[in-house]
Structure formats: C-alpha cells, structure tokens
Design a protein that fits this description.
single chain, 7-stranded mixed beta sheet, 6-stranded mixed beta sheet, 37% strand
C-alpha cells in the first residue's frame, strides 16, 4: 500500500541474490516505472499485512484496545470477514487503531497528498468506507469518559481525507452532523479544547457493505488483503537479450494483488534505475497475476523484474539475469592463390 524506498531496496536485494521480494511501491519508483499507485506516502513508511489474528474487538465498554486494530461489537455492528479484496463489512461497522496522541492542532496536516508526518494519510477501500478520526477532547488518553469527538469524512474512500467531515457531537460552534473542513474543526478545538489530541484513526461505515483494502497513517501502512506469497516464479530466471525481446519471461504470482487491478511491470537495475517494460497484466479474482513479459529494449545485466499494483501500490519482485547474446563470427574465405612467375630460357628457331 505505501512506500518503502523500492528502487534501492529491490536493487540491493537483487544484488544479494534473493528470489522474491514483496513490499509497497515508492512514488518515485512508481513514477519512474510508469505506474500510478493511488496511495502516496513518505519513504519512511513501514508496512504490515493484517490478519484475523491481529484484529481485536471492542464492545464499547471501558477503554478500547491500543496498539492494534479493532472492530466494534456494539448492537447493530457487523463482524467483518477477510478476503482477496480486504476486510469486508456486510453492514454498519468501525475499524480503528490508536495513535500516539498528536495534538489536535495537527489536524490540518492530515491530507492524502503530502509526505510529512500525519500528512501521509490514505485509504484504499470501497466508497462506502469513510476515513475516521477520534479526538480526545481533554487529552487524558481516555475514551470511556465519553469526552471525545469522532470526525467522519463526508466522502468515502481516499478522496474523503482531503474533504469535509462531520462529528456526532457539537465541536465549538460547529453543530453535530454539520460538514466542516479539518481546518475549521482544528480552530474550534483550539478555542474550546486546547488539550485535545488525536486518539484514533481508521474507517467507519454507517450502512454497509464496505470493503477496506488498506490504510496509511503517520508513517504506517496496513493492508487487510492476503500478504503476497513467496511461491511466485518467473521462468526462465536467466535468458539472453534476444530471448527476452521475443519469447520473454513467464510470470506466475499466486496472490497478493487486488482482484482485477492493473499490474505494471518494471525492471529495476542494480544501480536502482527503474524502467517500464510497457507490459501491463491484470490480477485475477484471487489476486493472482499470470502472464508473459517481453522487453525489446533491455540490455544485459541483473534486474529485479517487479510487478507493481496500480491501485494498491503493492510490489512483488523477482531476480532476473539477462545475458548478452553470443558474439556472431563471420567465416572468412581463403584468398585465391597468387600466380608464381616461372623463369626459363626462350628458344628461337628460324
């Protein structure tokens, strides 16, 4: 979902001889490679794949879990299920994670288009999932005292992060349920609750169904899809320049991408240079990618052949050795024999 320094990391791993690489694409890597992941973030991002074992529940009584993702089990909330597209709610639900208590004065830095601190917020989901922030009004780190405000994006999906939000309780002069920008909420928190802190982030959905694929916030990327398997293969892993240009490489990755998403293919050289092969594959319903990759412009060298999901930003790389074509020798024709003059004595008669 978001970005590790892909070019350098993939190339360094390729040099080390690793067989399969998995991670998330950097903006620079994606741009250079000719793909466009929706999720943008800083190179300091780290990534994790969340499973059912990582997910806790919260009944609404006492303090919610910290340091982990949790869902609500209060009346009316539905229990989510994991699948190839991510975490799916069949009806109303919430999915939240605690933060380190950033002051509410940081609200205006939460955008999906910047790459500093809280600016690296993003969401890949269906449009019914709304980005959500929980603000602890007195900054005491407690939610059970009910002294908090939940800001829910008006627009679902990643577009909602930079738009307007509503709160189920009044915030200063902003009435409950009235759309306002984060800047407007920030001003009201400063005026009425100067100690307020950002306590939690995540998504909420009032109706369902909704699917959450991945969430990024404050330097952390979390995916709810299956982690890419290391069972992927490329065949052959070594081939000549001319063979790469014609017959190409067969790629088989069993899972890890979003169902139906376009998957670009790039070559990352040992020096970190990425080039687009011009090949785009399509993930199957189970997130698998199968296809053939050719590149008539590749030169000899060791590369990471990298699959990059254009919607998810997930990448899977394989080490590929491209060898130079054998030198062509032209047979030479032996030179014609040179006539040798013969000296003799001329005989005259007459």
């Amino acid at each position: 979902m978001k970005r590790l320094p892909v070019l350098a990391a993939v190339a360094a791993t390729a040099v080390a001889g690793a067989a399969v690489l998995t991670g998330t694409a950097t903006a620079d890597a994606a741009t250079t490679a000719g793909v466009s992941p929706r999720l943008l973030d800083a190179s300091t991002q780290s990534s994790a794949w969340i499973t059912s074992a990582d997910l806790q529940t919260y009944s609404g009584t006492g303090e919610p879990p910290t340091g982990t993702w949790y869902t609500g089990t209060a009346t009316g909330f539905t229990t989510p299920t994991f699948g190839p597209s991510g975490l799916t709610f069949s009806g109303p639900g919430v999915l939240l994670h605690s933060t380190d208590g950033h002051p509410a004065s940081d609200l205006t830095s939460i955008t999906s288009s910047t790459d500093t601190d809280l600016g690296t917020a993003d969401l890949v989901s269906s449009d019914d999932a709304d980005f959500t922030l929980v603000v602890d009004l007195d900054g005491d780190g407690e939610i059970a005292d009910q002294n908090y405000a939940a800001l829910v994006a008006v627009t679902g999906g990643d577009e909602g992060i930079d738009g307007e939000y509503t709160s189920f309780t009044p915030v200063g002069t902003i009435p409950a349920g009235t759309p306002a920008t984060l800047a407007q909420f920030q001003a009201q928190f400063a005026a009425t609750s100067p100690d307020a802190t950002i306590r939690e982030y995540g998504v909420s959905d009032a109706t369902g169904p909704a699917t959450v694929t991945g969430i990024a916030f404050d330097g952390q990327n979390d995916y709810f899809t299956p982690r890419p398997s290391d069972a992927g293969t490329i065949t052959p892993a070594t081939l000549s320049v001319s063979d790469f240009a014609t017959t190409g490489v067969a790629v088989s990755q069993p899972n890890g991408f979003l169902p139906g998403e376009p998957v670009g293919v790039a070559l990352v050289a040992e020096d970190g240079t990425a080039t687009d092969t011009g090949v785009t594959l399509t993930a199957g319903a189970d997130g698998s990618v199968v296809g053939t990759v050719t590149d008539p412009d590749a030169t000899a060298g060791t590369y990471a052949l990298t699959l990059v999901g254009e919607n998810s930003g997930i990448f899977v790389g394989f080490v590929l050795d491209v060898t130079a074509d054998p030198a062509v020798t032209t047979p030479t024709t032996p030179p014609a024999p040179v006539a040798t003059p013969v000296t003799t004595t001329a005989t005259f008669t007459g």
